[in-house]
Amino acid sequence: MILESLEITHSELKNRTGWDIKPQGACKGEVCIPLPSSVTTADGLIDLPKLAEKLNMPLIQDEAAGLWCLGPESGGKALTTAVAPDFELPDWQGKTFRLSSLLGKKVLLVVWASW
Amino acid sequence: MREELYPQGLEVVTVALDTLGLKATLPFIEAANPTHPSLIDEGHLLDELFGFVNVPSGVWLDEQGMIVRPPEPAPTPRDARRSKVEVPRLIPEEAKTYIEEMTVEVKKMVEVGKIRNDSEKYFRAVRDWVSNGSNSRFALSPEEVLNRSRPRPVEEAVGAAHFELGQYLYRQGKTDLAVAHFREAHRLQPDNWTYRRQAWSMANVIQGPTDLYESDWLKDIRKSGAENYYPALDMD
Questions:
Q1: A76: helix, coil or strand?
Q2: B55 contact A CB<8A
Q3: What pLDDT, on a 0 to 100 scale, did the predictor assign at position B87?
Q4: What is the ipTM of this complex?
Q5: Which residue of A has its CA nearest to B11?
Q6: B30 or A29, greater pLDDT
Q7: ∠ CA(B212), CA(B213), CA(B218), 5° rounding?
Q8: Which of A69, A103, A114 has the CB atom closest to B28's CB atom?
Q9: In chain B, is it the N or the C terminus that has fewer CB atoms within a 10 Å radius of its CB?
Q10: Which pLDDT score is estimated for B84?
Q11: Does B81 touch chain A (CB under 8 A)?
């Protein structure tokens, strides 16, 4: 997740990483990791360095570009849960597609590339 | 395949992992004229969310949105190969020798079965799952899905962050900064073909040698062994 600031909203975090901040902690699927209250700032934003440490997510910086990047959680598997992440991407005609729109159907998700 | 199985409750979703987005993918998509959702993932978001490291790869999801097979090779049926698509590409004159060498090498690797194509096996399994749902022997339990998911030690996660920064900076026109991050991503995830081929292709359309990266497609596939390009399907 590309960042210009180290404080972000809950929805920004959820949209990009799938981690949802709930009263019981940071949750993805059925997995919830308790968080100290200091992860939330006085303005209700997420203090990313503190969250990154709790979730084992790398937070790297490119000083020349003035940017940070929050990587995925580490120490386990790429999938932390078998619940599919509900991602949103544009289709080739520019319309937004959300995976959950296909709930009720079986889905074969195939990735490919031009290269 | 999609037209055959859609009436039985299967939808196919294709996702192009392509930093250059529609600019790179549109000729292929227009030629395929998809009736299913055909998505563009410029940020390689799904690499990170699911753990994809090569293409084509697939994931199966059941009606409740549960993953019943994690990322694994999804071999393209022979009649759907994109080789039929005419894509205008500017091939530099000096690259022609590399292309000839690559064409011979790939042909050789396919002939001796080193680059696997188990498309018939894969699509038999898809059909079985569509017919039998959770009773199909190919539908895995949540525990087995997680067991088979790619491990993500800290260096893999750091590599993912570098790759994301590289893509962002590349799209901003900051190529020098981007290349440094791509190189770091390659170092940290040495078996990730997606990261390598995406970066190589933006420096050299045929993924041949450049001054920016130590490796190229042919060099790396010879080094790792073509038989390791796609892992064997665990579907027996």
A1: strand
A2: yes
A3: 47
A4: 0.93
A5: A107
A6: B30
A7: 130
A8: A114
A9: C
A10: 47
A11: no
Which single residue is written with the structure tokens 């959770």?
Answer: B134
**Within chain B, which residues score under 70 in pLDDT?**
77-96, 98, 105, 107-114
Residues of chain A in contact with residue B146, where contact means CB-CB under 8 angstroms, are 77, 79-82
Please give the model's pTM, rounded to 2 decimal places.
Answer: 0.88
> Quick one: pLDDT at residue A63?
96
Residue B89: the pLDDT is 53
Question: Which tokens belong to B172?
Answer: 């901003």
CB < 8 Å to B38, chain A: 91-92
CB pairs under 8 A between A and B: 224
> Smallest CA–CA separation between B77 and chain A, in Å?
13
Q: How high is the pLDDT of residue B78?
A: 59
**What pLDDT band is residue A61 in, cutting at 50, 70 and 90?**
very high
* C-beta atoms of B41 and A111 within 8 A: yes
DSSP annotation string for chain B = -HHHHGGGTEEEEEEEE-TTHHHHHHHHHHHH--SS-EEEETT-HHHHHH---SSSEEEEE-TTSBEEEEEEE-PPPGGG-GGGS-------GGGHHHHHHHHHHHHHHHHTT-S---HHHHHHHHHHHHHHGGGSTTSPPHHHHHHHSPEE-HHHHHHHHHHHHHHHHHHTT-HHHHHHHHHHHHHHSTT-HHHHHHHHHHHSTT----SS-S--HHHHHHHH-GGGSSPPP---
